[in-house]
Structures are given as C-alpha cells and as structure tokens.
Specification:
2 copies of one chain form a homodimer.
Chain A (H helix, E strand, L loop, with lengths): L1 H4 L4 H5 L23 H27 L5 E8 L5 H7 L9 E5 L5 H5 L4 H5 L7 E5 L8 H4 L5 H20 L2 E9 L2 H13 L10 H6 L2 H14 L7 E5 L3 H19 L10 H9 L2
Parallel strand pairs in A: 1-3, 1-4, 2-3, 4-5
Chain lengths: 284, 284
C-alpha cells in the first residue's frame, strides 16, 4: 500500500539544481509529489513504516557484517520549521536501534578549539546506521555568518572545507541527504504564537527566537549561499516545503525510503555452514 | 483506551522479592497482569504509544530546563530472549530523540583497562532521557563468571561494586529498571532454529550461540546470583516471562509507563514573561 502513495522520484523533484538559489521561488505550502488531503498525507506516512523499517534493517544487517555504508540525514531550517517533528514522526517509524540522532546546540569552548568539524565527525553514523543531524556544520555558515560570530574570511573559507568534508564522507560510504525545511515567516509567527498560547509548550519557546526572526532576510541570504556553494551530486541539498507539517514529514520519510532502496542493501550471507549448525543445535 | 488494558501495578507484580532466587519457579510462558489473546496483546501495546510518548515528552522537557532525572532500562537475557525486540516494538513507540540506546558487546582492551564500569558511565542517559542498555555491566558477573574471564575474587567483588554504582545513580536522579527477559531453553532452541531456517535471519545467528546454550545451567546460576545480590529497592530486578514475545513487549512498555507516571514530570513553567513575548512577537 505504501507503493501507491509514494512518489518514486521525490528526491529528484526536491533536489536543488546547481547554480544560484532564490528561496522566494520555492512555495512553502506546496506539496510536490503528493495529491491528497492532510488526513490522506498522515495515512500515507504511516503506511511507509513497514517498508522503511524493512530497508533500515537490511542496511543495519549489512553494517553488522562487512558493510561500510550508512545514511546521514541533515535537517536544517529556521526555528519551528519542524526538525524535531520530522524525527518524531518520520524517523520514529523506524527501529531506534538503527538511528543515531544528534542535536547540535551552540558549540562549547572545548568544541570550538577543535575546529567546527570536530564535533560533527564525532557524531557520524557507523556502518549500517542512519544518522540524523538536527542542525549541523551548516550552522557554522549560517548563525556564524549572520551573527558575525567569526570574521568573514573564516566563514567564507568554510564552504570549501564543508565540500571537502562531505566528499570524504561520500567516499567513505556515507550517503548524505541535506534537507532544508522551508517555512514562510508568516507560518513561523503562527507557530511561535501557538507555543506562547499553550503553557505545555512554553518549554519550546526561547525569547531569542524572536531576535533570530528579526534577522530573517539575513538568514535567507545565508541559506541561499549554503545551498548554492555546498550542493554537490554526492551531497545534495533538497528544499522541503514545510508550512504543511504532514507534507514535510511524508516528504522526508519518502526521500529516506528512496535512498535506502537506491542503496539496495542485501541480507548478509551466512559466514558459517548452515547444515552443520542445524546439527549442532539439534544435539543440544 | 490504554488505561483499560494496562495493569497499574505490573512493576510490583514482576519485581523479584529479596532473598535467594530460583528461576525455575518463574513460568516463562506466563502473562501476569494481562488476560487476553496474542492479538489483543499487540493491540494493547500499540494503545500505550500515545500515553508513553506523552510522559516521555514531559520528562524530556523537564530535563531541558532544570530537571536532573532520567530513566535507565537495563535489558538482560539469554540469546534470543528479545532484548532487541523490546527496543524495536516497545521503545519504538516513543520519540527516538528522547532515547539513548547502547548495545554492549565484548569490551575492547581499552575498555577493560578502564575498569568494567567505565564504559557504562559513558553511556548513561542525560537529564530527561530514557536510557536503554541492551546488555550491561551485568555481563561482567554473567559471561565473565561463567566463562572464567576473570578470577573468582574479581567477579565476586563486582556485586558490591555494582550495588555502590547503582546507589550512586539513584542518588543522582537515575530511575533504574532492570529486566531479565526469561525464556525457556526449549523456546531458545525454536528461535535459533528459526534463524537457521530463514536466510534473511542468518545475520542474527552466531555459532557461538550454541556454545553459550550448552552452558545454560551455569548461566542460570549466574543470573540467580545477580538477581539476588544486586536487587535493591532503588535498583530493582524484574523477571519478565518472555516465551511470548507479545507479552514481553507489552510488559516492559507497561512498566516503563508506570515508572514515568511515578516520576510524574511536569511541564516546565516559562522562564520569560509570556505577555511581553507575545507583544515582541506581534511587533515582528
């Protein structure tokens, strides 16, 4: 049933073409690859669960034996764009044993001393694992650039460093998927209001969110630069229209599923003699 | 609906009383606290999802603010007893962002040099998190004892060291739950046979499993010693009858839910002035 709902080429549809990026050209309420209602979208997401879990287990099994491949899903987006929601509702469909989730906050002094990629390397998924980054090394060319946390030559050099790093990952068997969860400023306002209106959501609100919001144009420019300068075939950027939460969750999960199918991990063959083992077991 | 199915005092029912432990007295096919069929058990498990996720989010929110509490679920049991299955089907109902899962294999030389509790400390859940150990420091009084990996005075001393360690954890806000997934040797044989009969399950089979199986009585004795000597009110052992997979998954998840409710984490109150923030947001 998952097959009916999922669009086979969603990754290709949402991939950012090479060249300059103008985010105003991307509709944040669009639902490319999906025709249906919100309720149908939620059902479609649930229906991916069995299939995506099956492929995840194949990748995991491959990794336990002689495999070296892994998947790394990088989630970026403005506050409230739904990075946590994608993990909860999309990644939550899979076996948590095969997930390695890292949420990157502001770097500590010790992390800063080691260079911006050090803590990223620490968090990479091992063979067979699906790594998920809630924010990532891209913050070092986003908030670091917008907030002048480092001098322009420093952040400017980082785009090349990121490209080198991501090439190295790809060469080491890490299948990278970078998703920009794209919301409109109007949608963000509604979501922040909702957090303020509901006392059980106050813990999700930070007064700094409004300060960041005021810098929306500068962040948009920084995202456009990152999406243009760090967009290689081996580490592509995708823009996920994210004003509709159900579409966002479905789309990222569908892309993950497509990626797993492309990797096509196989069940490892036995490294023991099956008949011998059956005999040994029977004798116990 | 979860409320109808769950037994409020399951933790108390499955808790090992203090004193000598005789595992032969525990029926591995029993379903204490649940009357119903296998299919009803699966439905009951699914119906716990919303409630357990809600409580998990409260604990997580508390931990993000000034909370220091966490939960640590230790899973032990013979091969095929279903440690991974509990994580997949039970923990899989929760938000993976709030889980910290660690699977302990044979310690590396570097780990051994640091003492058997070092790697365990590295893997402890942070505030607000639910840690899950697939095997644990108990292996150091199980396989280490049965296989003579260390001299008797060394493993013998470890029971006290474990008790001290677990007391320290409890004092630091870690709510410990230690579950022994109890299967019969006949059930293990069936499960190992099933792995040998299905080529997509060969990766789960290890010829060493049969060697371990031959030591069943010695392992039973070692488990009985651990359950007797390291069973404190602050770090209790529970025996989970595990010949029925659906019961095992339901029981561990129910116990986790009961524990979260006992902790009763509250949504953090705002550390900002809500009216002021509404005004600031409206002005953007």
């Amino acid at each position: 049933m998952a097959k009916e709902k999922k669009s086979p080429g969603l990754l290709e549809q949402l991939r950012v073409p090479s060249g300059p990026v103008d985010l105003s050209k991307y509709d944040t309420r669009a639902t490319p690859g999906f025709t249906g209602t919100k309720d149908e979208g939620k059902v479609a997401l649930e229906s991916l669960g069995a299939e995506v879990s099956d492929w995840q287990e194949r990748l995991y099994a491959e990794g336990l034996k002689d495999g070296h491949r892994s998947v790394l899903l990088v989630l970026q987006g403005m506050d409230t764009s739904g990075k946590g929601g994608v993990i909860r509702h999309g990644a939550g469909l899979m076996d948590p044993q095969g997930l390695k989730i890292t949420s990157f906050k502001a770097p500590t002094p010790a992390e800063k001393r080691r260079g911006f990629l050090w803590r990223i390397r620490q968090a990479l998924p091992g063979p067979g694992m699906i790594g998920i980054f809630d924010r990532s090394h891209y913050e070092d060319v986003l908030i670091a650039r917008v907030r002048d946390l480092v001098a322009p030559p420093v952040w400017n050099r980082r785009y090349g460093q990121i490209n080198d790093f991501e090439s190295e990952l790809a060469a080491n068997g890490v299948m990278l998927l970078k998703c920009f969860l794209h919301i409109s400023p109007e949608e963000q306002k509604l979501r922040l209001q909702a957090r303020l209106d509901d006392s059980t959501k106050h813990w999700k609100y930070n007064p700094g969110d409004v300060d960041e919001r005021k810098l929306w144009p500068a962040y948009t420019e920084a995202y456009e630069a990152a999406l243009e300068r760090c967009n290689s075939p081996e580490a592509p950027w995708l823009v996920i229209p994210s004003d509709r939460k159900w579409y966002r969750n479905w789309a990222v999960t569908t892309i993950l599923l497509e990626t797993l199918k492309t990797l096509d991990p196989q069940w490892p063959t036995a490294d023991f003699d099956v008949a011998t083992e059956k005999g040994r077991l029977a004798a116990t």
